[in-house]
Design a protein that fits this description.
Structural class: mainly alpha
Helix content: 40-55%
Number of helices: 7
Strand content: 5-15%
Strand order of the largest sheet: 1-2-3
Largest sheet: 3 strands, antiparallel
Order of helices and strands: HHHHEEEHHH
Radius of gyration: 19 Å
């Protein structure tokens, strides 16, 4: 199953109000009432991990928080600090098999370097398996 299966199950799925195009601080503050949708959401930490709002300088609602320019301006009731830290994305070691797995865990398409590293690692394992079988 894909690493981002939960996106379609989230209470905000398909609601474009959470990521408005007119990203001004005043317009985003009008989104605070939408944080109620996030209160019971079991995917808040995964949402933050996927979007990485602090790194992408995100504007909108993500993971039960209102983000303006990548900084939290408001949080839903029940938002916990550990949700932000539990899924904090570590840098991907590109060009490695582990990098390809990291992309997959994040629900991303692996970059060309990681895809190639994974392909080569799989070919080595197949070759080792053939060698043991003969």
């Amino acid at each position: 199953m894909s690493g981002i299966w939960w996106v379609s199950e989230a209470p905000c799925a398909g609601d474009l109000r959470f990521t408005p195009n007119d990203a001004t601080a005043d317009s985003l503050r009008t989104l605070v009432p939408l944080l109620q949708v996030c209160q019971g959401c079991p995917f808040r930490a995964r949402c933050i991990s996927l979007v990485q709002p602090h790194r992408s300088l995100f504007d909108g609602i993500c993971g039960g928080r209102l983000w303006i320019n990548g900084r939290i301006r408001a949080s839903c009731k029940g938002a916990r600090a550990d949700e932000r830290k539990a899924h904090a994305a570590r840098p991907i070691n590109h060009g490695t098999e582990a990098g390809a797995r990291a992309h997959n865990r994040r629900g991303q398409t692996a970059c060309s370097l990681c895809r190639e590293a994974a392909r080569l690692a799989q070919a080595r394992r197949r070759e080792q398996k053939r060698a043991r079988g003969t």
